[in-house]
Amino acid sequence: MPSDEVVRDTIAAIATPPGRGGIGIVRISGPGAGRIARALLGRLPAPRLAEFARFADARGEPIDEGLALYFPAPASYTGEEVLELHGHGGPVVMSTLLAACLDAGARLAEPGEFTRRAFLEGRLDLAQAEAVADLIDAASREAARSALRSLTGEFSAAIEALQRKMVELRALTEAQLDFPEEELDDVDRHDTAERLRAVRAALDEVLARSRQGSLLRSGVHVVLVGRPNVGKSSLLNRLAGEERAIVTPIPGTTRDALREPIHIEGVPLVLVDTAGLRESGDEIERLGMARTQQELGRADIVIMVYEAGSHERISEPIAQSARIEVYNKVDLQPRFRAPAGALAVSAKTGQGLAELRQAILRTAGWSATGESVFLARERHLRALATASAHLSRAAEQQASWELFAEELRLAHNALGTITGEFTSDDLLGEIFSRFCIGK
Ligand SMILES: Nc1nc2c(ncn2[C@@H]2O[C@H](COP(=O)(O)OP(=O)(O)OP(=O)(O)O)[C@@H](O)[C@H]2O)c(=O)[nH]1
Ligand SMILES: [Mg+2]
Fold first, then answer.
1. Whose CA is nearest to atom 32 of ligand 1?
2. Residue nearest to atom 1 of ligand 1 (CA)
3. pLDDT 10s per residue in the chain (439 long)?
4. How far is CA 242 from CA 223, 260, 347, 376, in A?
């Protein structure tokens, strides 16, 4: 993306999290960074060398001492002149240091503004900029690994490879536009059809890897439901590996929905324990059951828990989310066989729990193929799906080169929104406003 021609102001923000820490960093970016260095440190530090310095305000009052790092443009995070002041990470020190930068001519950065500038300066494409936020927000090791892959450009490279194939195909078809239809021979048609097939297959593969990766971002909602006392809370505790929910032999123990974030093989899930469903019960229990219904509305996966050997079923209609049927307490019914498609488990002994974990992952759409996945966002999935729809329309348009080329162009543009080649200011605003200040 080309840099916009406006002269930018100089921004400053505390880049480290609020609170107390050994080190706190104030980051400054923009054409005035050098001037601010002179104002606070009395000199311009040597480029890219950590220098010990005293930080003082405009009246010469000392604020702190620490390291100063100066990056001349364009070799910096934002591509602009950048100054980092590493002081002691106390809230008072940091806000005084920041105030001194503002006095010296900087303005407070908006959320995500450093990364937005990096994007505008062409240091990162849009998918990489998003990966910065995803890496910081990663909820599991697996999510962090995938975010890092996007940050280093692996996802963008896959998108660009698809775009290149589309451009080749467009060039080929647009050359045909100059000839009357009847002069085209079948060889050309066959060749384009073959190439289109290859692009579609490659796009489908990227889409599959992205769908998988999107699971690492979103955190799948898994809701445990069943009649009272079947062992829902016990199963939650088992899956969480901790005694989170209260378990008693009294039916109706769980009154309120309890959410517990867990990981299975690095995939983040939110496990929700609910109040058991039954007709009777006091007012609290009825309110609890109303919450159960709410949770069901939000569920990606519902785990229906039954007691092995019991014929009690849930009478309430359950939302049409993907479901897993589980028969618990099989330790009490050693001869019990679960019906086809259902699992026999014991929260007490742990029997069947590994299978349950695998079933949850499978139902969520996760397949451990060993193939690296892309930590895609909803926005990316939509763009890929749009591109895929245009390609399938192109496949139907082979009688008309104009329409065929047009569908290819639209598919190419849809992919361009991922890396930010074609994006509106509104979209940029929306993406970067979700960052924290200082990123
Ligand atoms: N033997 C055996 N007992 C179990 C098993 N799972 C749960 N229990 C017992 O069954 C009783 C009910 O367990 P809970 O986990 O509280 O059941 P719940 O479905 O959450 O019940 P409510 O919150 O009342 O809806 C407790 O006494 C548990 O110890 C199991 O796998 N085997
Ligand atoms: Mg319970």
1. 329
2. 329
3. 444 455 689 999 999 999 999 999 999 999 999 999 999 999 999 999 999 999 999 899 999 999 999 999 999 999 999 999 999 999 999 999 999 999 999 999 999 999 999 999 999 999 999 999 999 988 888 889 999 999 999 999 999 999 999 998 888 877 776 666 656 566 677 788 899 999 999 999 999 999 888 888 877 899 999 999 999 999 999 999 999 999 999 998 998 999 999 989 888 899 999 999 888 778 888 888 888 888 988 899 999 999 999 888 776 667 677 899 999 999 999 999 999 999 999 999 999 999 999 999 999 888 766 677 898 999 999 999 999 999 999 999 877 878 888 999 999 999 999 999 887 888 888 889 888 888 8
4. 17, 10, 12, 31
Q: Please tell me what DSSP assigns to residue 423.
A: -
Buried b (16+ CB within 10 A) or exposed e, 384-403: bebbbebbebbeeeeeebee
Quick check: helix, strand or coil at residue 300? Answer: coil
1 neighbors 73 (Cβ within 8 angstroms): no
Atom 8 in ligand 1: residue holding the nearest Cα? 231
CB neighbour class for 313 (10 Å; exposed up to 12, middle 13-18, buried from 19): exposed
C-alpha to C-alpha distance for 286 and 231, rounded to whole angstroms:
19
Which residues, judged by CB distance below 6 Å to any ligand atom, belong to the binding site of ligand 1?
226, 228-234, 247-249, 251-254, 276, 328-329, 331-332, 346-348
C-alpha pair distances (Å), 25 with each of 42, 67, 134? 19, 9, 21
Ligand 1, pocket-test mutation among 234, 256, 278, 304, most atoms within 8 A of CB: 234
